[in-house]
Amino acid sequence: SKDFKNEFLKLSFYGVITFFLSGIDRATLGFYDYDLVSIATIGYAATIANVPSILTETLKKYLSPLFFKDFTLKGFFSDKTIKSTTVFFIGLTIIQLIFPIVFFLILKETGFVKNSLVTSDFISLIVVFSLSMAIYNSYHFLNPIIFYNNKSEKLIFILGLCSTMFLLLLKIPFEFLNPILKVAFLKLITSILLIIFTFKMVFNERK
User: Fold this and answer.
1) Which residue from 45, 166, 53 is spatially nearest to 107, judged by alpha carbons?
2) DSSP assignment of 104-132
3) What is the pLDDT of residues 93-115, one digit of tens each?
4) Vertex 78, ends 74 and 84: CA angle to 5°?
5) Helix or strand (DSSP H, E) at 201
6) Which DSSP string corresponds to 166-190?
7) I want to staple 177 with a disulfide (CB 3.0 to 4.6 A). Which of 53, 66, 75, 182 is the partner?
8) How many whole angstroms separate alpha carbon 117 and alpha carbon 39?
């Protein structure tokens, strides 16, 4: 049907935008006078911060059937699902904030760290990226209601807006931050804005 094709195209475009947002730093930094070593350092820290993502994916697969059952019966998240999701999310956030640092220290202790990419503030870089990921993780548990109501174009809009804001902010000099940490903090700001916009959108879906 025409509606199915339209939604399929929107979801495909959404996937492209999501992929672009997740890697926007490494994809565009070359145009902002970042050298290859700096880009590699940022990518290395982001990869370590992203280690707990397998838990996020597992939790998404566990909770998704509960979400869509609620949407079918109630049109929104049930109170029970909200409470259980909140508990899971708090646990996931704690792991997201602690495990990357522990993982890096284990790598360092066992000699598996790529020392040429580890700067003096590398742990700070991991911490900021981990905080950004912890905030971004909530996006996965907020957006299912938008997909259920076939309004993925709204998510495409806010993802595109956040990507644009990241690129614009990247051009602004921040004298109190070194260029590498600046990228991490801008990712954090972008994640916060994404959650604010998404939460407002989800709240508007409540009937």
Assistant:
1) 45
2) HHHHHHTT-S-GGG--TTHHHHHHHHHHH
3) 999 999 999 999 999 999 999 89
4) 155
5) helix 179-205
6) HHHHHTS--TTS-HHHHHHHHHHHH
7) 182
8) 10
